[in-house]
Amino acid sequence: QVQLVESGGGLVQAGGSLRLSCAASGRTFSIYAMGWFRQAPGLEREFVAAISWSGLSTSYADSVKGRFTISEDNAKNTVYLQLNSLKPEDTAVYYCALTPRVDASSPRAYSPRAYDYWGQGTQVTVSS
């Protein structure tokens, strides 16, 4: 089993920044890649970014490219999501997730089905 705990969400004005963290514990040797997803009220959970645990591969949704940056610290078993130039449409609950079998560079990494473990989510609210 793996446990994921997110932190760092909050309320920010448009144009502002936040950094989300996701700490993994338990069977962390099973990590192949980590991802961030988000879900706004009434909408489906959507892919935001993913990173291979080696750090060599990253992928981003078109809507966040150039604004968000995913990174990882293997020594701390933690993945980060830096959110810059935030927009009101970025408002959502952000979830981190772990996959033991799909690389971040794979198109499958864009699907929630590729991920076996999920955090509880952290709310990001961007005011206009």
Helical fraction equals: under 10%
**Given the structure, what is the number of helices?**
0
Order of helices and strands: EEEEEEEEEEE
Low-confidence region ranges: none
Give the strand tally: 11
Instruction: Tell me the fraction of residues in β-strands, as a range.
Output: over 45%
What Rg is obtained from the alpha carbons, in whole angstroms?
A: 13 Å
Major sheet details: 7 strands, mixed
The geometry reads as globular
Structure explained in plain terms:
- The protein has 128 residues and is mainly β.
- The protein has strands spanning 2-7, 10-13, 18-26, 33-39, 46-52, 58-60, 68-73, 78-83, 92-99, 117-118, 122-127.
- Strands 2, 4, 5, 6, 9, 10 and 11 form a seven-stranded mixed sheet that branches. A four-stranded antiparallel sheet has the order 1-3-8-7, with no helix packed on it.
Could you write a compact summary of the structure shown?
The chain is mainly beta and 128 residues long. The chain contains no helices and eleven strands.
Entry keywords:
about 130 residues; seven-stranded mixed β-sheet; four-stranded antiparallel β-sheet
Please give the structural blueprint.
Layout: E1 2-7, E2 10-13, E3 18-26, E4 33-39, E5 46-52, E6 58-60, E7 68-73, E8 78-83, E9 92-99, E10 117-118, E11 122-127
Parallel strand pairs: 2-11
Antiparallel strand pairs: 1-3, 3-8, 4-5, 4-9, 5-6, 7-8, 9-10, 9-11
